[in-house]
Design goal:
By secondary structure, the protein is of the alpha/beta class. It is built from 10 helices and 10 strands. α1 crosses α2, α6 crosses α7 and α6 crosses α9. It is globular. One of its GO terms (biological process) is DNA replication, Okazaki fragment processing.
Length: 269
């Protein structure tokens, strides 16, 4: 079976554009030292292409898809606080112009979806039935929430199963992600979160119980009118990288994850 790489191009291009930035200093007419950041677009593109070629050689294919994030992010509609704690940072010089060049030149397939982060688009593609063997190239730990995929990381290949992916996703649901701004279950760190997942019984039921107990001890974790079940579901949706079953391809929008009991309850008729 042929192999296709799904590259988290946001990260790769950001890194490669950053390494070629250089500082120039000159003295103006007033005698002040002026520091100017500059970059060579050709050099940045060359470094990025070199990165892609090295990956293709290592993984034995020249079939590569560069996946970028869209201009919007559906999680901000799910919860306005998503990534709100991140300070505004600029993209490195040449970043946007190189994306435009990659699209125009057509050497690689470049894809993005307006409302999706790149990792969600990768998740949809990687979990969809395909005639090719797809390998995700990313160091984002959240890719491990995707079932039955191969993930190439700096430290080697990771293989997931449906069981391992669901466990990792629920672990993130319990722990939260301070980088993305959602806090998870009140009072739970990695050790206690893992204990919740190790319990016998229904995993989601155990997650709900943990949130109930945590919010009872820390009621300020809840917003006005919010229940502990609401908070658990919110964190689960924020933590879940989209799978192909979470995507409405006709209307080009996510299908937010719903617990089985709610899905049955909400069936029309």
């Amino acid at each position: 079976m042929a192999t296709q790489l799904l590259i988290d191009a946001d990260f790769s291009l950001y890194r490669d554009c950053s390494v070629v930035e250089r500082e120039a200093v000159f003295t103006n007419e007033a005698g002040h030292s002026i520091h100017v950041l500059n970059s060579s677009e050709e050099e940045a593109l060359e470094v990025f292409i070199r990165t892609i070629k090295k990956l293709e050689k290592t993984l034995g294919t020249d079939d590569t898809v560069l996946v970028f994030s869209g201009a919007e992010n559906f999680r901000k509609d799910v919860w306005s606080g998503y990534k709100a704690n991140r300070k505004a940072t600029r993209k490195p010089l040449c970043y946007w112009s190189i994306i435009d060049r990659l699209k125009a030149e057509g050497t690689y397939k470049v894809v993005e979806e307006t409302c999706l982060e790149g990792d969600d688009y990768i998740g949809i593609l990687a979990t969809r039935t395909s005639p090719v063997d797809r390998i995700i190239v990313s160091d984002d730990k959240d890719m491990q929430t995707l079932p039955n995929v191969k993930i190439w990381r700096m430290d080697g290949m990771v293989h997931t199963t449906e069981e391992s992916a669901d466990a990792f996703w629920l672990l993130q649901t319990l722990m939260g992600d301070t980088t993305d701004g959602y806090k998870g279950c009140p009072g739970l760190g990695p050790v206690l979160a893992q204990r919740v997942l190790d319990k016998a019984g229904d995993p989601w039921g155990n997650v709900l119980q943990a949130y109930h107990d945590g919010c009872r001890k820390n009621p300020k974790a809840l917003e006005d009118g919010q229940t502990s079940d609401d908070l658990a579901l919110l964190n689960a949706r924020l933590a879940r990288i989209l799978r192909h079953t979470d995507w409405d391809s006709k209307n080009r929008k996510p299908i937010l994850w719903t617990p089985p009991e709610l899905a049955v309850t909400n069936v029309p008729g």
